[in-house]
Backbone:
């Protein structure tokens, strides 16, 4: 049974909505800059931050300014709303699966700061929304009344795994339509953490560049609507692409580092190709995980070199536009991959100058149109060795 | 679907397939007996001490499973992991957050564990499991919902066995309900002890 | 306490080396690789250790390779760079 993508929704540092994001990608305009809304960092930090406050987003969504809604949920609702369009997400065979790592952290860490400084502080309601499941429920309730709701937290592959699980449930005949993807907001918690791992670049990140020095974190949300034929005959939605292959594997090497040859990445990509009944030569463009850390990019490039050998395949990382959006990255990059497919274009890496030591071709560095694109691969590799690869195909 | 093996570790219970293990350890004591279980199992794996409590709990559960299951009879990428909890990695998150609150240098070793799926990474590293791994967040453990995910795994043809279940830990309260499900048993009705 | 003995105590505590005694750590033995089997996260923890206990800041993790070769090399670096 084929699984089709019939809705796209995205929010990132590039803006709200598919159009805003697409325009920026076409014009090589980055969303990465020094933090402005997020306060309390030890030093100014390059991040992929959306220029809208929580209050702005609440207004856009029709919530009262006093509603205690975490930033992750607000980002998620904006993207989910766009992806659904006029489709109502209800009925026994409908679902919503969301990936996140930060959850309601933005409200909680503010609560802790104030509670720590001032014992009388009593805004304890703000931490009610901390956990990941609550954020998912917020978005689910906003979207309708989906029957199956689940939250996935597998680090940077969270929303890619949400997409995988949704597709699997459709193919297993359990659901007909499911909104899948994920959301994550910026937080001091994660920025401090990545700095302690010394993989945070003090400059805008340079994926797949020999001189790369780490990642920049970003925030956002990306959701796609998956439907089977039965559902489409009712919703009458247009089809953007077919989700033709998916696979997940574990690198089994280190808690956060990746194996030198990207074993997990290779397994995930090979598995996705098998699932789609495609060969490496059928892939026209790869939206790589490409976080710009020394380790990931080296492992991933080695895996690409092993799988694609001398193939002149176009690949890039859009994290130089959005930053690494953690749990949201799989969802956001799924949307970008489908944009590439639909518009026959490939997006360049920004800030790229130096070829890496691996014997593999350089990434795409200029925006290209009228490219033959039948199949796009999107990679998401998370801490804990959790590696996922998705393939979107032209219909 | 029948579970080929079940491990339970909680404040008052350490059981393998319903049989009490290490009786002297689980007596509802306030400190976690994870180190004691590690000693009883006589494993030589110093990396254990670097793990956070969630990872230690999952790791030990799987070590106990190995007393009755031979993982070598499966291909390394055909054993999938599917875990669930409601607290995510909160037990470790609070430690990381506290360092930030006190304006101390965050510890990279602690930050590594502020994701619930790292426990699956530790299990994968130890046992060389290259298969699928999924961690979902739910309010409480509903066996039928978990089994549904296991069924999907088998139906998709991606695994010959699944290791996983419910793994919850916060401060000194912990609850591991770990199952090993063999695909060959998946047609039969499932029983949760 | 002798700096090297102090360092060994710090190592055991900071890196959760529960089964190791200070007496087990030779001053010139390799800490990484086969030695104590430390990994990349341990190297980062040692950077935190230098900052917390000796007020020495390391900005480039690559520097760690040389500094953290052994207890001897660590002690030498600290003696030269501490306030």
Residues:
């Amino acid at each position: 049974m084929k699984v089709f993508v019939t809705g796209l929704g995205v929010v990132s540092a590039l803006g709200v909505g598919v159009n805003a994001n697409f325009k920026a990608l076409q014009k090589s305009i980055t969303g990465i800059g020094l933090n402005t809304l997020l306060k309390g960092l030890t030093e100014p930090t390059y991040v992929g931050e959306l220029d809208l406050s929580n209050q702005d987003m609440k207004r856009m969504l029709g919530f009262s300014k006093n509603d205690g809604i975490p930033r992750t949920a607000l980002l998620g609702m904006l993207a989910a709303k766009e992806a659904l369009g006029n489709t109502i997400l209800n009925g026994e065979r409908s679902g919503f699966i969301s990936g996140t790592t930060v959850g309601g952290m933005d409200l909680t860490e503010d609560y802790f700061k104030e509670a720590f400084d001032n014992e009388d502080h009593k805004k304890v309601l703000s931490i009610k929304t901390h956990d990941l499941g609550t954020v998912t429920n917020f978005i689910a309730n906003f979207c309708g009344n989906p029957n199956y709701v689940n939250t996935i937290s597998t680090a940077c592959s969270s929303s890619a795994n949400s997409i995988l699980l949704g597709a699997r449930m459709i193919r297993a005949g359990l659901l007909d339509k499911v909104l899948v993807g994920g959301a994550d907001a910026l937080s001091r918690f994660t920025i401090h953490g990545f700095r302690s791992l010394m993989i945070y670049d003090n400059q805008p990140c340079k994926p797949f560049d020999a001189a790369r020095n780490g990642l920049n974190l970003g925030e956002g949300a990306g959701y796609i609507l998956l439907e089977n034929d039965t559902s489409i005959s009712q919703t009458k939605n247009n089809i953007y692409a077919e989700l033709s292959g998916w696979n997940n594997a574990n690198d089994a090497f280190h808690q956060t580092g990746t194996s030198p040859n990207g074993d997990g990445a290779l397994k995930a990509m090979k598995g996705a190709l098998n699932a789609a009944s495609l060969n490496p030569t059928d892939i026209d463009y790869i939206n790589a995980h490409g976080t710009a850390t020394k380790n990931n990019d080296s492992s991933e490039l080695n895996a690409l070199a092993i799988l694609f050998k001398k193939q002149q395949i176009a690949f890039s990382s859009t994290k130089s536009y959005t930053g690494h959006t953690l749990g949201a990255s799989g969802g956001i990059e799924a949307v970008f991959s489908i944009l590439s497919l639909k518009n026959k274009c490939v997006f360049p890496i920004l800030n790229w100058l130096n070829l890496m030591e691996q014997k593999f071709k350089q990434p795409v560095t200029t925006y290209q149109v009228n490219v033959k694109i039948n199949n796009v691969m999107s990679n998401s590799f998370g801490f804990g060795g959790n590696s996922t690869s998705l393939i979107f195909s032209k219909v | 679907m029948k579970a080929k093996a079940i491990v339970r570790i909680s404040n008052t219970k350490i059981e393998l397939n319903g049989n009490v293990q290490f009786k002297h350890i689980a007596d509802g004591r306030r400190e976690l007996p994870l180190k004691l279980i590690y000693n009883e199992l006589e494993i030589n794996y110093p990396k254990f001490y670097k793990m956070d409590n969630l990872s230690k709990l999952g790791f030990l559960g799987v070590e106990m499973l190995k007393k009755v299951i031979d993982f070598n009879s499966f291909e390394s990428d055909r054993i999938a992991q599917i875990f669930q909890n409601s607290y995510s990695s909160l037990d470790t998150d609070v430690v990381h957050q506290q360092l930030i609150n006190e304006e101390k240098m965050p510890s990279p070793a602690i930050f590594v564990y502020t994701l619930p799926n790292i426990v699956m990474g530790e299990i994968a590293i130890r046992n060389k499991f290259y298969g699928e791994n999924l961690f979902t967040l739910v309010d409480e453990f509903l066996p039928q919902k978990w089994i549904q995910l296991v069924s999907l795994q088998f139906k998709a043809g991606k695994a010959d066995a699944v290791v996983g279940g419910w793994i919850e830990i916060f401060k000194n309260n912990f609850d591991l309900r770990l199952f090993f499900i063999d695909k060959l048993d998946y047609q039969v009705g499932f029983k949760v002890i | 306490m002798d700096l090297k003995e102090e360092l060994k105590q710090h190592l055991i505590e900071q890196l959760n080396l529960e089964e190791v005694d200070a007496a087990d750590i030779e001053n010139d033995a390799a800490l990484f690789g086969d030695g104590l089997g430390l990994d990349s996260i341990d190297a980062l923890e040692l950077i935190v250790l230098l900052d917390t206990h000796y007020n020495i800041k390391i900005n480039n993790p690559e520097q760690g390779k040389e500094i953290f070769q052994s207890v001897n090399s660590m002690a030498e670096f600290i003696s030269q760079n501490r306030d």
